[in-house]
Please model this.
Amino acid sequence: MKELGVLVPIVTPCDKSGTPDADGMGGVCKYMMDAGCDAIFVCGSTGRGPWFSIKQRAAICSSVKQFIGPDVPLFAGCMASGLADMVDNAKALADAGATTAVITAPGYFAYSQQEVEHIFMQFADRCRLPVIIYDIPVFAGMKLDVGTVERLAKHPNVIGFKDSSGDIAKFKELIAALPKDSSYYTLQGKEHLLTESLYAGASGFVVSLLHVDPEVFVGLKQAVKSGDRARADKLQAAITEVMNIITNTFGKRAETSTMFHFFDQILKAKGVCRNMVLEHEGDCPQWLADEAMRAVRVCDEVKAI
Model:
């Protein structure tokens, strides 16, 4: 697999009305790049991409591009409910400086594997950016099978796959099915599967909990690369503990805004940005703020070992 490393699906700082905050995005990018992350992903699910208009997505992408410069890969979410909007999103984000388009199955309607494969192929034909296929059943409403991903990988404009399905057996099967000298990216999207995926040959990972403490995740990548399995296992255990914390918060508060409140509390406490919560999402419950700070302490403790 082609190595990528740590790709950060950044949050989108904004005011309560949803106007993106360019200075806040710069703060988030600095936080991640100073920790040693390798690439940035804007307008994904963590970045609240589907909420924003095409014009806003382009402004977000442009602001980030200006901050990270020309040498850092910039991935951009082009998700939409139909092919025309997916293609229009990709064009606008390419014009704004994105280097790679990321796409999920279109939302709202239910699709068969054959149908969504055809949609992806059409998108790849019409997109001037190279394309990453993103499997995230919790939002897309379907899980891509290995055959679909393998056939899509043969398209000359499809350069990789991000797996947030949580199916490690499928992920390993895909890695084994692709040529070892491939220029194709295989990216893990579930925090508890990072070490296992990297040892299986993954190109890297893309996970939202990087916002809690990117140094822990970069340290995991480096430990695996250097062959320090004991250190990798300690860092993975801490990351899995943090994942369990946020999973439990969703058990008490199922709204997607739980994630935004969680990261908002952490990034404000660290002075990274001012806000990412919208007016309709209300105030953060104290118990949720406490859980966010507990996650930070878990990361602080493992770095001190």
